[in-house]
Structures are given as C-alpha cells and as structure tokens.
UniProtKB/TrEMBL annotation:
Gene3D superfamilies: Pyruvate-ferredoxin oxidoreductase, PFOR, domain III. Keywords: Oxidoreductase. Residues 11-187 form the Pyruvate/ketoisovalerate oxidoreductase catalytic domain. This is Indolepyruvate oxidoreductase subunit beta. It comes from the Bacteria.
Length: 197
C-alpha cells in the first residue's frame, strides 16, 4: 500500500532538505520511493512543496487532490493553502509559525492569523512550536528537522536508522544538533498525543 506525504512551506525554511532526508531514509529501509518538488519561488517568501510517496511499488510521484495521508506544514498559512490535497482521514502536523509569503509582503493578500489558528484547531491539527523549540536546542535552523522527527513518529517510521541518514547527508559540524532535533520532534508528538488522549 502506498503512503503519500506532502511537505509544504515557504522558501528558506528547509522543506526540501527535510524531504530529501525522508526520501533517503525510506529508500534505505527498502521502500520504493518517488519524490517531486515544486518551488514556487524557492528563495525566501515563495511557496515550496515536496511530495513523497512510498510503498512496495509506487507508480507516480504526484499526490492527487484528496490523496495525502499526512500534510506537514512548516508555516501555518501554508497548511490551509494545501488542505484540499489531504485525505478526509488524513493528519496535519503544522508548525505554529508565521512567515509572510510574497503576496502578503506585497500587500496582495492578507494574513488572517486568528482565523488560520481557529481553522487548524477545528481540523485537529497537531500544532508544534518548532521554531521556538529549535532555538531552545541552540540552533534556529533545525526547525525543519524537528518537524521531520514529528513526521517520523506520526507515520511510525522510527525503526529506520535516521542517525545514519543524518550523518551521511548533513555537514559534520551539524550532525549532533540535527540528531537532537529529530529526537526532540519525535518526543513532541508523543507529548501532544498524551495531552489529547
């Protein structure tokens, strides 16, 4: 059975690196994996999405509307923008983080923060303050790896050797902090699950 993961964010948030680590881990675990990326404008402010599909045999990298098992949003407005891609029973993990996109910065769109948060609450999204947690760990840039850890835990992919994947794909001086961030993301989802049960 094929599983579909949609990762979305704004350029500069590390969405693509998280997707590449995820894809590498799944391939090393023996899954057939297909990944596609869409960079609206992948520099800061542009919408970025990455689609990862895995299973015994995957024919297409593209997730159809209503086809994603899980939507991982690195920025909360992006979660709602991509919502139509989620299955009715699909899960949402959203970073409780605001990063204005180009339309907001240029005044073409309005950022309705309160409405976004209310809608995500109504949808029973798992909200994580990954940016704050990354700062607590000592490096704001590992926000993406915290979200990857949350995804790994949510999809029950903990048995993959993620430490090896990080060691093989991240600059040596950042390996330890990235491993810490991944584990921390997994713990945050466990705490969130306990809080809601």
């Amino acid at each position: 059975m094929t599983k579909s993961i949609l990762l979305v964010g704004v350029g500069g948030q590390g969405t693509i690196l998280a997707s590449k680590l995820l894809t590498t881990g799944l391939m090393e675990a023996g899954y057939d994996v297909k990944m596609s990326e869409i960079h609206g404008m992948s520099q800061r402010g542009g919408s970025v999405s990455s689609q990862v599909r895995y299973g015994n045999e995957v024919y297409s990298p593209v997730i159809e509307v209503g086809g994603a098992d899980i939507l991982v949003s690195f920025e909360k407005m992006e979660a709602l923008r991509w919502l139509n891609y989620l299955k009715p029973e699909g899960k949402i993990i959203s970073n409780n983080y605001r990063m204005d996109s180009m339309p907001v910065l240029t005044g073409k769109a309005e950022y309705k923060e309160k409405e976004i948060e209310e809608e995500l609450k109504r949808l029973d999204a798992t909200m994580l303050n990954a940016a704050d947690e990354a700062v607590k760990l000592g490096n704001a840039k590992v926000m993406n790896i915290i979200l990857l850890g949350a995804l790994v835990k949510s999809m029950k992919l903990e048995d993959i050797n993620w430490e090896k994947i990080i060691k093989d794909n991240v600059k040596e001086k950042f390996v330890d902090i990235n491993i810490k961030a991944l584990k921390h993301g997994m713990e945050l989802v466990s705490k969130e699950a306990l809080a809601t049960n």
